[in-house]
């Protein structure tokens, strides 16, 4: 998931970005509303974290402009203002949630996960596809075999997790390769388009033994699918049945 952080306080922004990247998110940071508008007109983001007290245009006005320009990504508003009127105004101008500074990182992460699940029409912290389960709160991946036996953990690196989570949120629809690349990178990291193929290849090696496939969709991206169980060959037309 790729997040946009709009915060003018360097120390606050550095701390938030460190916490978010440590949780597996790709984070791009800008220090003004004007710069935020520039990048959102050129890049796609899954969620924005916006401070109200920005220089020039403030965070509330930025949120309102983003909505007028058709951006549907969730917006979490950060502010030191705790008056009821400020919270109501922030939500009325297009914010999806509101956090008052100072706050604890675990609560911020929980609120972000809730907003992302809501935006992707997922209501549970656990994503499931066939035998595969991702616990987005604990960041655990496992295979749940048929018959209710014990789950088998799957080790996923941070970027493998990002790709797997995006694929599961899109399933059964295919995931766009360009959006997968955007989910993996920030402006401060150089990742080539071939990087997506590298992580897809690694995930295939971990999923195929458990009956899951990552099918390449030419010119678009990849789709998570269930492998057909091995069976007898189909009978030849006209051949006598045994």
Overall description:
- With 242 residues, the protein is an alpha/beta fold.
- It folds into 2 domains: 118 residues, Response regulator (Rossmann fold, 3-Layer(aba) Sandwich); 101 residues, Arc Repressor Mutant, subunit A (Orthogonal Bundle).
- Helices cover 38% and strands 22% of the residues.
- It contains 8 helices and 12 strands.
- Helix 2 packs parallel to helix 3 and helix 6 packs across helix 8.
- The radius of gyration is 21 Å and the shape is elongated.
Concise structural overview:
This protein is an alpha/beta fold. Helices cover 38% and strands 22% of the residues.
Name a few traits of the molecule:
Rossmann fold, 5-stranded parallel beta sheet, 242 residues, 4-stranded antiparallel beta sheet
Rg, nearest Å: 21 Å
Strand order of the largest sheet: 2-1-3-4-5
Second-tier CATH architecture of the largest domain: 3-Layer(aba) Sandwich
Order of helices and strands: EHEHEHEHEHEEEEHEHHEE
Task: Determine the structural class based on helices, strands and strand pairing.
Answer: alpha/beta
Number of domains: 2
Report the helical percentage.
25-40%
Number of strands: 12
Shape: elongated
Low confidence ranges:
232-242
CATH fourth-tier homologous superfamily of the largest domain: Response regulator
Characterize the main sheet.
5 strands, parallel
Mean pLDDT: 85
Please give the structural blueprint:
Elements: E1 2-6, H1 10-22, E2 26-30, H2 33-40, E3 47-51, H3 59-68, E4 75-79, H4 84-92, E5 97-100, H5 105-119, E6 126-129, E7 132-135, E8 140-143, E9 152-154, H6 158-170, E10 175-176, H7 177-184, H8 193-207, E11 212-217, E12 221-226
Parallel strand pairs: 1-2, 1-3, 3-4, 4-5
Antiparallel strand pairs: 6-7, 7-8, 8-9, 10-12, 11-12
């Amino acid at each position: 998931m790729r997040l946009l952080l709009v915060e003018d306080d360097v120390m606050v922004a550095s701390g938030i970005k460190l916490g978010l990247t440590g949780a597996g998110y790709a984070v791009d940071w800008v220090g003004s509303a004007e710069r935020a508008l520039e990048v959102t007109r050129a890049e796609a983001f899954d969620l924005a974290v916006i401070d109200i007290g920005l220089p020039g245009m403030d965070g509330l006005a930025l949120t309102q402009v983003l909505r007028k320009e058709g951006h549907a990504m969730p917006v979490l508003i950060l502010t030191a203002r705790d008056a009821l009127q400020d919270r109501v105004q922030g939500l009325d101008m297009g914010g999806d949630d509101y956090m008052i500074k100072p706050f604890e990182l675990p609560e911020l992460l929980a609120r972000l996960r809730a907003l992302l699940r809501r935006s992707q029409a997922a209501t549970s912290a656990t994503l499931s596809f066939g035998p595969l389960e991702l616990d987005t709160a604990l960041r655990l991946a496992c295979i749940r075999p048929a018959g209710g036996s014990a789950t088998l953990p799957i080790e996923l690196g941070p970027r493998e997790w990002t790709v797997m989570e995006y694929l599961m949120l899109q399933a059964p629809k295919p995931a766009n390769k360009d959006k997968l690349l955007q989910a993996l990178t920030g402006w401060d990291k150089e990742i080539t388009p071939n990087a997506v193929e590298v992580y897809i290849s690694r995930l295939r090696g971990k999923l195929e033994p458990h009956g899951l496939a990552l099918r390449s969709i030419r010119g678009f991206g990849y789709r998570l699918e269930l492998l057909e169980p091995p069976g007898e060959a189909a009978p030849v037309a006209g051949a006598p049945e045994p």
